[in-house]
Amino acid sequence: MKFLINLGLLLLLAVVLVVWVALPWPGVLALVLLFAAWLAATRRGRQTASVTGVGVSTLRQRLGSSAVIMIGTAGVVGVLVALLAMGEGYAETLRKTGSADTAIVMRGGSASEVMSVLDRDSIVVIPQAPGIARDAKGDPLASPELVVAANLPVRGGGPDDEGSVQLRGVGDRAWEVRPNLKIVAGRKFETGRRELVVGKSAQQQFAGLDVGKTVKLGSQEWSVVGVFASGDALESEIWGDADTVASTYRRGSSRASVTVKLADPKAFDTLKAALAADPRLKVDVDTTLHYFSKQSEGTAKVIRAIGITVGMIMAIGAAFGALNCMYAAVAARAREIATLRAIGFGGLPVVIAVMLETMLLALAGGVLGGLVAWLLFNGYSASTLAAGSVGKLSFQFVVSPQLLWDGLKWALAIGFVGGLFPAVRAARLPVASALREL
Amino acid sequence: MKYFHLIWAALFRSKTRTILTLLSVIAAFLLFGMLDAVRTSFDQAGQSANGARRLQTGSKLSFIQTLPQSLDAQIARVPGVKSVAYANWFGGAYQDPHNQVFSFAVSDNYLDQYPEIEVSAEARKAFAETRTGILVGETLAKRFHWKIGDKIPLQSTIFPQRDGSKSWNFDIVGFMHAKDKSAGWYDQLVLMHWKYFDEGTPYNRGTVGWYVTSVSDVNQADRVARAIDALSANSDHETRTQTEQAATANWMKQMADIGLIVGSIMGAVFFTLLLLTGNTMMQAVRERTSELAVLKTIGFSSRAVMALVLAESVLLLVLGGAIGLALASVLIPIVSAGSGGMLNLPSVGAGSWALGLTLMVAIGLLVGAPPAWRAMRLNIVDALAGR
Known about the structure:
Chain A: Keywords: Cell membrane, Membrane, Transmembrane, Transmembrane helix. Chain A: It is a multi-pass membrane protein. Chain A: Pfam families: FtsX (PF02687), MacB_PCD (PF12704). The complex is a heterodimer. By secondary structure, chain A is of the alpha+beta class. Chain A has helices spanning 2-22, 25-41, 43-57, 63-97, 120-125, 173-177, 200-205, 242-248, 268-277, 288-332, 334-342, 347-377, 401-428, 431-436; strands at residues 102-107, 142-153, 162-170, 182-186, 195-199, 214-217, 220-229, 237-241, 257-261, 283-287, 381-385, 392-396. Chain A has two domains: 2-95 and 296-436, no CATH class; 109-281, no CATH class. In chain A, strand 11 and strand 12 form a beta hairpin. In chain B, helix 2 packs across helix 12 (302-338). Chain B is elongated. Chain B is α+β, with helices and mostly antiparallel strands. Chain B has helices at residues 4-11, 15-44, 49-53, 71-76, 121-129, 138-144, 194-200, 221-231, 244-255, 258-287, 289-297, 302-338, 350-376, 380-385, and strands at residues 54-59, 67-68, 81-89, 92-93, 100-106, 117-118, 133-137, 151-156, 167-178, 189-193, 207-208, 210-215, 239-243. Chain B has two domains: 4-46 and 256-385, no CATH class; 61-237, no CATH class. Chains A and B meet through helix 4, strand 2, strand 3, helix 10 and strand 11 of A and helix 2, helix 9 and helix 10 of B.
């Protein structure tokens, strides 16, 4: 009998958790409202409210175990939110780099810009395709660009501590197809000179990238003349004149990609069809939004999987901790609960009250954990070698409201698991023998 | 040791509580085992004796820049160099361009530089004789169900062939197996002939991605590295030579600050664990107050009682921790296999066990200290009277 009840509880638990994970926020809100109405309106609801009130008021006498539930849940939520915020920040940085009204053309079959090579002829042909926006003079807004990597000393590192930064060789059009990019210090480089403008994040990552200083690319001296900001992945790059970069890297007149401004987002299909139909070209075209989102996909997925795995293991640990504490709490309050039952309180209010108490503690822990994660990690900078790029990519953790909400849902789930079994035990306490222990 | 039974009985006096606490400890150390394996795999990448004996020479400009193949003969003549091989990045993908496969186009003597990679004599022979032959890492072959003798097409995401086609045809002639865990990623690699590659594509034009040099004397590695770099100083293809160890460590550092991430997670986990087990031990001692008083009455010294309580808490942690770490060593190979070769984690090593055991004992002593102190100071008369 007891075994069957436990089995039933486990099944119930599994079902509730599955539904809970899938439940969107309006569903949760409806559930909470429904529950509040039940508490206020029905006789059993009011009984539950008063039993919960007694339980909550005695929390202070059980400070140790209450803290275990709270801190345990806070730890789970904090770590989970921080790890997911890392994945979110990474994906967000790359997503922001692209837009729906610009497209990138690369050699067919190239997984990323660095791997693509477009010869001189293609670079002349591509901008003539239909669907590309044109300036006042009627010239197409298309920017052929060369993407290579450069080794530079890492800021704050030892003499031999070099990192890789993505170097983009561009022409004047590069600024026009990316209007969000602003020079925040110094000036743009001059065509034909060994001058660099550096992204804000690149400047923070690498030594010597300050306006007025020179850096060595291989055996050549390049001077840094400006800093740009764009708030996206481009900020981790350094830019120079395309022809000068090409000669340093012995790339001749070839380029890696052509970024074009579309006449309007719907013109993409026209452009794609035209490029595919041109027998002179073997190229792939994609909107930059899709291209950059795709680059982040793999890594973001891995980070998310790691976050959820770590969160799961921690949550299991925390749930056992909560179970332990609530069993102890129920045991300590056995007489009190038996008395309530004796004077006419039903089993259900006792079950709900114990669960409510656990879930409130877990919720408080979840809020605490989310808050700590938000305070510590929102905007926290990290860097990695991004997939599809050849340089260090800086990104900032984003603790979004959605993540905090997910964290709270996890907290409540832990509270539910931790409260269910002790609650059932509390309700099943034989009244007579519990009272006799006086 | 003669009190072990007593400690064991005390520990399982309240079964539910002890088992629930144990499960929490197990979860914490399971996580510790897995994360520490990740950290170790990052730390130990390239940290083998072979890694210190090999030098990697790449372009000083950046790792994507190539070097002329003529450097091969020059490097071979540098005093202290035992042998030199070279390789190029092929950028292969199988079936789908996003299904990327680590693939190098290598010189004929490339494998001689890597004694830790096991390739059967027949496979070596077949590889030498087949122009389009490739050697495939075991894990990779398993992932795609490749067999020796299979003809497979690989797309290169960087190098099209002369006719513009991206698809290259290869014959699988043998498998590679890494004897040493630190070279484990060779199990996922494809090696092809540099000659076949160079002749097949118009884009490479006799260049080499990087050189791998074995030095005769490890202590001379720095000097040899400088001598190699001096060969091309002030040319348009300056080089940068590092030991494989240093180069790998540098890559790992650029990937992510794993130490910090693992450290913060474990900090949160152990802080929680401290609180949780501490609470359990406090409860355990509180409800046994009268039993402890009886022990003292029948002649146990205050110190002995303190030691009993401390031993109990250490036993709780070590028991749970050991199960957790054991569980991690069982789970890690499953996770590695399940990821289809994406993750290649070493099992829980002796270092992790040592660190884990130290943590278990330390946490055990820490959480045992307050209740043990309480047990030692216990006044027999008060305790027996229930005051």
